[in-house]
Amino acid sequence: MKKLAIGCLVVVALLVVCGGIAGYWVYSKAKSYVGQFQALEKLDKNVTNVAAFNAPASGELTEDMVKRFVAVQESLHTRLGARVEEMKARQDEFLKRQQAEHRQASASEAIAVVTDMMKLIVEGKSAQVEALNQERFSLEEYSWVKGQVYRAAGMDLVELSIPNLPELAKQGGGVTKAVGEAGVDVPPRNKELVAPLLPKLKDWAPLAFFGL
C-alpha cells in the first residue's frame, strides 16, 4: 500500500508536532494551547449515537455506510476546506522561509504553527459531531468505516493521536497512529464501493490526518 503525499500541510504539522514541541521547555510554553484538546473530549460526548458497534466479520462496507461517510466528509470539507487551504498556504510560506534562511523553526514559530493547527482541530471536531449526528454515526462506527474506506482506496494514512497528544509531545514520542487496520486483506466489495471516491478522498485526506 503506497504512501500518500498530502502536501506541506501535513508534512509541516508532523515536523512541528514531532520535533518542534518534543522538548520539555517548548512543551511548557505551549501547554496552554495543548490544553484546548481537553475540549475535544467534551465535544465527543455530544455524539448522540452511543450504541456499541460490532464490525462485520467479513470486513465489508455497505452502500449505506459509504453514503453516510461521504455525507460527513462533504459537510466537513464545505465547512473547513477554506480554512485548511489558508493554513496550508501560511505553512508553505513558513517552510520556504526556513529553507531560504537555512535554519530550523524557532520555539515561538513552532508554537504558532501548532496553535493554528489546534484551533482548526477544535473547530473541525465541532463540525464533525454535527455531521455524525446528522448521519446517525457513532464514534466507533465512523472510525471503522473511515479506516476501511481509506484502506480500500490504497491510501496509507496516519492521524494525530489526539487524546494522548499532550503527554506524547512532552515525552517526545510518536504522536500519530494508522488510519485503518494494517495487515488485513481488503474485501473486493470495499474496493468496488470506494473506487468512485478516489479523487475526493485525496482532497479529504488532510481531514483524516486531524482525526476528522
What structural class is derived from the secondary structure elements? Answer: mainly alpha
Number of strands: 2
Please trace the helix and strand order, writing H or E for each element.
Answer: HHHHHHEHEHH
Shape: globular
Total discrete domains:
1
Cα-atom radius of gyration: 18 Å
How does the major sheet shape up?
2 strands, antiparallel
- Major beta sheet, strand line-up: 1-2
Helix content: 55-70%
How far the N terminus sits from the C terminus, by CA atoms, comes to 22 Å
Number of helices: 9
Low-confidence stretches: 1-26
**Average pLDDT number:** 77
Q: Into which percentage range does the β-strand content fall?
A: under 5%
Question: Describe it for me?
Answer:
It is built from nine helices and two strands. The chain is an all-alpha fold and 212 residues long. It has one domain. The protein has a two-stranded antiparallel ribbon with strand order 1-2. The longest helix has 39 residues, at 63-101. The protein is globular, with a radius of gyration of 18 Å. Mean pLDDT is 77; it is low at 1-26.
Top keywords for this entry?
mainly alpha; 9 helices; globular; disordered N terminus
List the helices and strands and how they pair.
Elements: H1 8-20, H2 24-34, H3 38-44, H4 63-101, H5 107-134, H6 139-152, E1 158-160, H7 165-171, E2 176-178, H8 188-194, H9 198-209
Antiparallel strand pairs: 1-2
Could you provide a short overview of the structure?
By secondary structure, the protein is mainly α. The chain is 65% helix and 3% strand.
